[in-house]
Amino acid sequence: MIYATTVTTKEELEQIHTLNKKNFKDHISNEEKQQEGFVTWLYSLDLLQQIHELAASVIVKDDNKVAGYALVTPRDASAFHPDLKTMVNNLESLNYRGAPLKAYDYYIMGQICIDKAYRRKGIFNMLYQHHKKLYGNTYELLVTEISASNSRSQKAHEKIGFKTIHTYHDAMDEWNVVTWDWSED
Question: Is the pLDDT of residue 10 over 80?
Fold first, then answer.
């Protein structure tokens, strides 16, 4: 049975870590990146645990197997996550709908990934709908960044309801900053 839930065990975090490594951009071919998408950040198990202690991430499971994950990453995680700190600093300078983004209650979707065997089966939508169900009454926005070269991910996020509010370059890549405004749904 396939269902959406949140991380509750170390074994689930280990499965997220394994899935993250398998789909990391440096571990897959260029052809696979174009066809299937990729993840940009490699998370250590320790970092996943620290993030999890702030907020439980969303997963979709098939019985005991993690079929996909979407990391819930509160801005507070930037205290111990250097890459996130850079991202949050960049986000804080942006405006959204006439106000500074930092004036909104939002969290960051740290990464989303679905096991190859479960792609094109609605898991992506399940993950995000569970985010909204769990956190929609607490936060106004869900924010993330997508590599401009990851067109598959960009299209999937737009289908959910994310909109690009800013694009920028850094030493690593070109990024689209996207938001899902839950007040618009």
Answer: yes
The whole-angstrom separation of Cα 180 and Cα 95 is 14
Q: What amino acid is encoded at 75 in this protein?
A: R
Take residue 49 and report the two structure tokens written for it. 């645990």
CA distance 55 to 107: 10
Task: Return the H-helix or E-strand segment holding 11.
Answer: helix 10-22
Contact 153, 147 (CB under 8 A): yes
* Mean pLDDT taken over the chain: 92
Transcribe 48-79 into DSSP letters: HHHHHHHSPPEEEEETTEEEEEEEEE-GGGGG
Rg over alpha carbons for the chain, rounded to the nearest Å, is 15
What structural domains does the chain harbor?
2-181 (3.40.630.30)
Cβ-proximal residues to 129 (8 Å cutoff; 6+ apart), any chain: 4
Query: pTM for the whole thing?
Result: 0.91
